[in-house]
Amino acid sequence: MMNDFDQVALLLLILVPLAGSLMMMFMPGDQSKESWYFAIFVAGISLILSLLVFFRYDYDAGGFQFIRTYEWLPGPLDINLALGIDGISAPLVLLNGVVLFGGVLISQTITHRIRDFFVLLLALSAGVFGTFAVRDLFFLFFFYELAVLPMYLLIGVWGSSTDFGTFLRTKEYGAMKLILFLVAGSILVWIGILALYVEASDNSAATFSLQGLAQLSESGQFDETFQTWVFPLFMVGFGVLAGLWPFHTWSPDGHVAAPTAVSMLHAGVLMKLGAYGIIRVGMFLLPEGAENWMPVLISLGTVNVLYGAVSAMSQNDLKYIIGYSSVSHMGYVLMGIATLDNVGVGGAVLQMVSHGLMTALMFLLVGSVYHRTHTRDITVLNGLASRMPVNTFFFAIAGLASLGLPGLSGFIAEFMVFTGAFRTYLPLAILAVIGAALTAVYILRLLARTFMGEADERWADLTDASPMEMSVGGAFVAIIIFIGVWPAPLMRVINVGVQTIPGV
Amino acid sequence: MTSLSDNLHLLTPEFALAVLAFLVFAIDLFLPEDRKGYLGWVSIAGLLALIVVSLVMLWGEEESLYDGLLAVDDFALFFKVFFMGMGVFIILTSMDFVEDRLEHRGEFYGLLLFSILGMNLMAQSRELLTAYIALELLSFSLYVLAAYAKDDAKSNESALKYIIVGAVSSAILLYGVSMVYGVLGVTKFEDIAAGLAVASEVSPALWVGVGLILVGLMFKISAVPFHMWAPDVYEGAPYPVTAYLAIGSKAAAFALVLRLAAEGFVPAADRWEQWQIILAVLAALTMLLGNLVALAQKNLKRLMAYSSIGHAGFILAGIAALSLDSDLASNGVMFYLVGYSITNLVVFAALISFFNMTGKETITDLGGLADHQPFLAAALAMGLFSLAGLPIFAGFTMKFYLFTAVANEGFLWLAGLAVFSSLISLYYYLQILRQVYIEPTPASDGGGDLLEDYPALTKRTSLTLLTVLGSGMAGIIWLGIYPKPLIDAIEAASRAVMS
Fold first, then answer.
1. Among the listed residues B236, B231, B18, B250, the one whose alpha carbon sits nearest the alpha carbon of residue B111
2. Distance between CA A68 and CA A45 in Å, rounded?
3. Distance CA A238, CA A250 (A)
4. Do B370 and A152 touch (CB under 8 A)?
5. Nearest CA in chain B to A143
6. Among B370, B392, B484, beta carbon nearest to A73
């Protein structure tokens, strides 16, 4: 029976949220709670599926597993829905399952057009699952775009504007900026895909299959000039979604304006799509181009780390601090990828998972604070610890993971990235370590201002996180600690995937 | 030599369509005013019957009629079915509007049927003069339709502009035909190809002749710099006619251009390479200008006019990429035409439904639509996302297919520009969605709430429009997720002209 499951596992993984989204469109009653229950049900099945897929991935065998190919458009274009996951995508599939389920669970705070919210949220997560689970360039791009498309409405309709006193950052602004940046990035990706297809169809049968293209790449179909010319299209195009400096500016504005569940998914999972794209398309298909461009990518990644950290230090809005910290942490991911060293790249993938968990947790907790206090200004908030002990504890764990405390997931990931970088680009590695120290500054500043000190009497009636938020947050904390203490199960899978990247 | 009447039965659908149109005019004379609506249903029933008849009778047929003037092949059949199907949906879309806002309701449907006949013949023509006559049949019906809101000054102005520009472009086209005939002595597409191929040095007169034909046709598909008429005509014409202009007449013009290029020019390989560059530049200008100017529009019809100019640019890029080596580009053009028409139909049906309720047509009037008409809002969102080229909708697959074909023919820069133009278009489509989903309901002209002045806004959309929207949305998703059945039909049609 489980073998039958393996046959359709990935198809189900994509179809369950997609069909759930489509079915929900026809559910009556836009305001009813039933939509939420239904979304929990769908997200729950997705979580179970992603758990099964992750744990049934055989890391001894390695390579792509759960392979299944459905004919879609044969003939001159040769596009097929080819499914399969390897050691790099398996943990990310699981990450999406976890964050989606958590995000849906704590979304009872959505009270306006409940149904539409979950329709879009589920469509988005179908896109994310799809991107991780396909082995075809067309479908990778298809699902990648699907994951980006609902963001405009999710932020524009359910988001919140931020008043800075002198000026207002509206949610419409955040939403439009985000979507235009991301779609501009995907234009570069699209052009890159077209260039790849045209080059591949020269003297051989054209294809969009990632495996077919990788074989062509191995046989020298893409010469170095071509690779050097096309790789930056993918690096920058996917990089935009990964928060690559200087194209990161959509990220803080977008995350701040988004509602909690969307921030969780977007910072937690969607930004990883960008990094994943660089690995899956850029490095697998264009290894020589990757090699030539890695000095640039690692430099930009270092700027990400430092720039994000310095920006986060000077923000007073909780969400902006976390938004910039995401920019900073994605810098480690980009650096790790750019080391082209198996420890470094492995660290980058682990950092994707680790950052996905901790940033989702932080957005969850900020959402919980904001829902009760209606402010995110750390100059106004103080002493929340006495009123919200559990929330404070969780936040401390997430913060400590983010500044790389040993025993939590962030430490191992960053340590591996540093190791990789020390082997390859020593000066930049030193700068990145300084960045990690800066992280401590802004995280401790945030914790001290918001949670420590004397509680304002305004917060006298403040209640702690709701049971739902506590259980979701607790689960996240448990996973963060688990990975920090015993990363081996995860690393085994990741290493199997990283070894297959050409040139690493 | 075969007798002219040998294969005449193959034209049954055309004869029947003409009879149907005359019949509608005739019955109209005897129907009392309150029953004129029946004529719409008669037309729909007739068109549906003709679709079935055409499919049964002409599937796989490979014939030339009247000594090669008209083709009966899969290409013609594909477009015939497509046009008549569109006709059914356009009539469904127009019914409420015609009932409430227009006079001479019976003739409206008769004229529509005549225009569809013209479109069918355009897809079948293999000869310049036949093509010209078919084109004029379509154009004359459209001139009248554009002027149909007879008490509306804008509609009259629009029709007048349309007639003048249309007549001038027809004259240019005809002059071009005469010059080509003067040099080569032929007007059939295949003979032109043969003439071009052997002419060691193409005479200036031939260049001018072909150039003039090109200009005439560019007017019809509103390619830059011959697009000026489109926004004014689109804005003034009655709403369903605007939809028809954007969907039907554009597709028909492209069907003609596709066959003319594929049979008349592509086979003359060396010459075609020169024309390809000219077409590519025109396509680039068209997509950029259409999408850029659309950014500044406030009126929905004008916006859709510029948007349709932008899309014409994409399709023209596909025409420029036609080649003897591969059918990819012609497949792409046909796929795009179908996907674009269905998507546009949904957008227009939603806008027309809104217009029927309020009589308003600027973007800001749509504020708060999602609150009182969630279904219309969803349809609009789906349509606009599809036009912008996002998955899981038709727009993504059709753009991907077409742009891949363009890039594959060596026009990577053009494909890149097309992708970039899509980004621009996303911005203005999102501006509409922003009104629909994010902004509150605006005040009406009287200062009150729009809802109070237009109680119809809280009512349900009429059944006819719901049919259009529902099937259109299903079509958009179907083409976005699994276009293979359509692509199979398209490949057969492509083979017929790209031999």
1. B18
2. 21
3. 14
4. no
5. B391
6. B484
Residue B328 lies in a domain: yes
Query: Could B412 and A195 be called an inter-chain contact, meaning their C-beta atoms sit closer than 8 Å?
Result: yes
Q: List chain B residues with CB under 8 Å of A197.
A: 404, 407-408
Q: What is the pLDDT of residue B357?
A: 85
Q: How far apart are CA B312 and CA B254, in angstroms?
A: 9
Phi, psi at residue A325, to the nearest 5°? -65, -30
Residue in B closest to A200 by C-alpha: B408
Q: What is the pLDDT of residue B85?
A: 93
| Rounded CA separation B303/B12 (Å) | 40
Interval A302-332: pLDDT, tens: 999 999 999 988 888 888 888 899 999 999 9
Across the interface, which of A143, A171, A191 has its CB nearest the CB of B419?
A: A191
Which pLDDT belongs to residue B446? Answer: 66
pTM reported for the whole predicted model: 0.92
Q: Give the A-side interface with B, CB within 8 Å.
A: 18, 25, 30, 72-73, 75-77, 113, 116, 123, 127, 138, 141-143, 145-146, 149, 152-153, 156-157, 171-172, 176, 179-180, 183-184, 187, 190-191, 194-195, 197-198, 201, 206
Asked if the structure places residue B454 within a domain, the reply is yes
CA B390 to chain A, closest CA, distance in angstroms equals 7
- Which of A77, A145, A172 is the closest to B438 by Cβ? A172
Smallest Cβ–Cβ distance between A142 and the set B326, B391, B407 belongs to B391
Residue B475 to residue A466: CA distance in whole angstroms? 44
Distance CA A181, CA A251 (A): 9
Q: How far apart are CA A431 and CA B33, in angstroms?
A: 83
Non-local CB neighbours of A482 within 8 Å, separated by 6+ positions: none
CB contact under 8 A, A191 and B415: yes
| A208, A141 Cβ separation under 8 angstroms | no
Q: Which residues of B sit within 8 Å Cβ distance of A?
A: 326-328, 370, 374, 378, 381, 385, 390-392, 396, 400-401, 403-404, 407-408, 410, 412, 415-416, 419-420, 422-423, 426-427, 430, 433-434, 437-438, 482-484, 487, 491
Its ipTM equals: 0.90
Residue B427: list chain A partners with CB under 8 A: 176, 180
Domain enclosing residue B443, as ranges: 268-499
Distance from CA of B117 to the nearest CA of A (A): 33
Cβ–Cβ gap B419/A190 under 8 Å: yes
| Residue B252 falls inside a structural domain | no
Contact at CB, B426 and A72, closer than 8 angstroms: no
The full DSSP string for B84-140 is HHHHHHHHHHHHHHHHHH-SSHHHHHHHHHHHHHHHHHHHHB-BHHHHHHHHHHHHH
**Mean pLDDT, each 10-residue run in order, chain B (499 residues):** 68 90 89 83 92 85 79 89 93 88 85 93 91 92 88 86 91 92 87 80 82 91 87 90 90 92 84 87 93 90 92 93 87 93 94 87 84 87 91 91 90 92 91 87 70 74 88 92 89 84
User: Could you tell me which of A13, A6, A240, A282 has the C-alpha nearest to residue A143?
Assistant: A13
Would you state the pLDDT for residue B199? 67
State how many domains chain B has. 1
In this structure, what token pair is assigned to residue A440? 């401590």
Q: Which residues of chain A have pLDDT under 50?
A: none
- Which of A196, A198, A201 would you mutate first to test chain B, the one with the most B CBs within 10 A? A198
Is B221 inside any structural domain?
Answer: no
What is the SS3 assignment for B51? helix
Phi and psi torsions of A418, nearest 5° = -60, -45
Amino acid at A73: L
A99 within 8 A of A92, measured Cβ to Cβ: no
